Amino acid sequence: MPAAMPRLTAAHRHGGALKLHRRVTFGEVSIAPLQLSTPQKQPIAAAGTGLAISYLSLGVAAHLPSSTRRGGARNSASRESHALTTAQIANLRAAERHADKMGLPFTRMVTIHWEAAGVPLTGMAKASGRFTDMVTKALARHGSGTAWIWVHENGHGKGGHCHLLLHVPAGLVPLVTKLQRGWLRRITGHRYRGRVIHSKPIGGRLGLEVSNRGLHAINVEAALSYVLKGASAAAAALCNLERLESGGRIIGKRCGTSQNIGAKARETKD
Asked: In angstroms, rounded to a whole number, what is the distance separating the alpha carbons of residues 215 and 16?
């Protein structure tokens, strides 16, 4: 299937083996955060890490609640899944490429640990949907569009959480950072709990997508590979993923995209 064919690395696309920013890390839900600066990738493994949660390194991701009825019957709020499929991986990769073509490259990785925030597994999809809706509206009020993808994960020693890659212009990062804890209080109905949300610029510094597009592209690809690590072993092999961890049991949607970079939007643009 063409959509599942291995994707050329950003280094090939930009004519060189650019190094990743040394300070770049992701929102790991484990003891040791992933370092983008290392050139080696972890081999595929059949099982998850089993490491304990470190709330110091949690991050965010989300989409529209299942009650919006978007996505069809297969995305029922009661549906259970345990891994990303080949089709889902292909869709998320295509969405990332489309966001970049639209001038809305992913610039930020956010991880929200919904379980630590008091949200049950059955409520994660709705919570993630509300968060992305609040981000989108806040950016729109300040004249900016956005695009995003998200993936939910769960599992022993991890807990239910969401990884989100999205476009936030460098100039509006302080605004989003200031507002996001208030959004979480509104979503959960509880006081904000420390270390529930982890938000970092992709590539380690603001404005990298403008100052060094090649380096930014490599870091986006690394971030995307990280959020896709909950793939099934078969999907990981077909999609050329070199990192694999258990994605855990998810109720409702496991992943999603903003509408402007979804399958229908891409078909219309093509």
From this structure: 10
